């Protein structure tokens, strides 16, 4: 679908994005000519959701100012996604002493792997959708220099995407370490301009600590490992996040927390996930979805967002990231995973709904 922005966008009857839900004609008329000081236009902010009618959210910010200037729309999207109102204020908390978890699957029966990531962007530089080529390259240099100083278990190497061997790139994606290219949601938001320039990945020797550079956010800091030791994954992440903060000033807003390209990632910008084998729940979708909803969990496929599940293995993560702390995100994942494992164990092997898995 193409759209030139000259009139109110048409949304298909089956479009369920938050953009379609909240963008009224009156709001469109009020915002359509607005542009931030970095030159990011309202029409760019909504382009991805107009072009990709299967979007869940459909809007991207181009800079910190987007969250103010386009607030008539973004505040409604944020409130709907995170349950965070205009009068709420985000608070960060990295205090591990408040975390009360253990490995939910010590025998390794269900959890294949655990991954926790945060998104970060650099203060005083536009976000990916509005930055120019030289700003993108300066972010790459800043981050590549910062990760060069990481010590001990975190020490590793930065690999620019430009010039990376195709086979190496494919294998990194297949093994869940690297982002895919060509994401149509990001492309329509202007986040893939000048690809692969300025993009890359840092990882330590074990590939348990990684940093993606200039994908959807300027930094995605990731800790991951096989099995269900959520606490170890979280501790490693925090060590890395704090170490990089010594040389990279993160973009932070007093109300919205860490600012990100997509409003779904605001606040903690944290997605804590497990790849978990739930073959019985996969065949009992009402029960699966009920537990997921009760625990504010999102269900994705095993090859990332917009992919499908394979062999009864799902990516389960915290849905909410804003208005709850980092500790809460991890605690929420833990409790939800415990509930899912209990449900999986309870399900009898009687007649089941054979419809394909969610996602
Ligand atoms: P994000 O928004 O967190 O970057 P994506 O859904 O785009 O997430 O996934 C990015 C990559 O991370 C994909 O390859 C996905 O399979 C992988 N991934 C996510 N969670 C896990 C996990 N718990 N274990 C292993 N790989 C994971
Ligand atoms: N823009 C896409 C959509 O609306 C992605 C939304 C959430 N995911 C993300 N990676 N920001 O469906």
UniProtKB/TrEMBL annotation:
Entry GO MF terms: ATP binding; creatine kinase activity
Phosphagen kinase C-terminal domain location: 110-347
Positions with a binding annotation for ATP: 113-117, 176, 220, 271-275, 300-305
InterPro entries tied to this protein: ATP-guanido_PTrfase, ATP-guanido_PTrfase_AS, ATP-guanido_PTrfase_cat, ATP-guanido_PTrfase_N, ATP-guanido_PTrfase_N_sf, Gln_synth/guanido_kin_cat_dom
One Pfam family matching this protein: ATP-gua_Ptrans
UniProtKB keywords: ATP-binding, Kinase, Nucleotide-binding, Transferase
GO annotation (BP), single: phosphocreatine biosynthetic process
Signal peptide start and end residues: none
Top-level taxon of the source organism: Bacteria
Residue ranges occupied by any Phosphagen kinase N-terminal domain in the UniProt entry: 1-83
One Gene Ontology term, aspect cellular component: extracellular space
Family statement: Belongs to the ATP:guanido phosphotransferase family.
Protein name, UniProt field: Creatine kinase
Organism field: Desulfuromusa kysingii
């Amino acid at each position: 679908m193409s759209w030139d922005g000259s009139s109110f966008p048409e949304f298909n009857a089956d479009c369920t994005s938050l953009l379609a839900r909240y963008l009224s004609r009156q709001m469109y008329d009020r915002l359509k000519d607005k542009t931030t000081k970095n030159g990011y236009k309202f029409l760019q902010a909504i382009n991805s959701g107009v072009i990709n009618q299967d979007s869940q959210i459909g809007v991207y910010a181009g800079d910190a100012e987007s969250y103010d200037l386009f607030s008539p729309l973004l505040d409604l999207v944020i409130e709907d996604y995170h349950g965070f109102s205009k009068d709420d204020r985000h608070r960060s908390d990295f205090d591990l002493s408040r975390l009360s978890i253990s490995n939910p699957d010590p025998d390794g029966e269900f959890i294949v792997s655990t991954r926790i990531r945060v998104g970060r962007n650099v203060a005083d530089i536009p976000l990916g959708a509005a930055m120019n080529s030289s700003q993108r390259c300066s972010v790459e240099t800043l981050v590549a220099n910062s990760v060069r100083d990481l010590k001990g278990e975190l020490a590793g190497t930065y690999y620019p995407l430009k010039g990376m061997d195709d086979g190496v790139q494919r294998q990194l994606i297949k093994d869940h370490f690297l982002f895919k290219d060509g994401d149509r949601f990001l492309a329509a938001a202007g986040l893939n301009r000048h690809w692969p320039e300025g993009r890359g990945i840092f990882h330590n020797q074990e590939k348990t600590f990684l940093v993606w550079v200039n994908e959807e956010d300027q930094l995605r800091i990731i800790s991951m490992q096989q099995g269900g030791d959520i606490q170890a994954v979280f501790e490693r992440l925090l060590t890395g996040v704090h170490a990089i903060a010594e040389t990279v000033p993160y973009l932070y807003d007093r109300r919205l927390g860490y600012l990100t390209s997509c409003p779904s990632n605001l606040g903690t910008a944290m997605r804590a996930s497990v790849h978990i084998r739930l073959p019985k729940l996969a065949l009992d979708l009402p029960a699966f979805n009920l537990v997921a909803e009760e625990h504010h969990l999102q269900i994705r496929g095993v090859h990332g967002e917009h992919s499908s599940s394979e062999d009864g293995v799902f990516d389960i993560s915290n849905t909410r990231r804003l208005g709850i702390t980092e500790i809460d995100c991890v605690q929420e994942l833990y409790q939800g995973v415990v509930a899912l494992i209990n449900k999986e164990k309870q399900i009898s092997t009687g007649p089941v709904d054979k419809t394909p898995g969610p996602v």
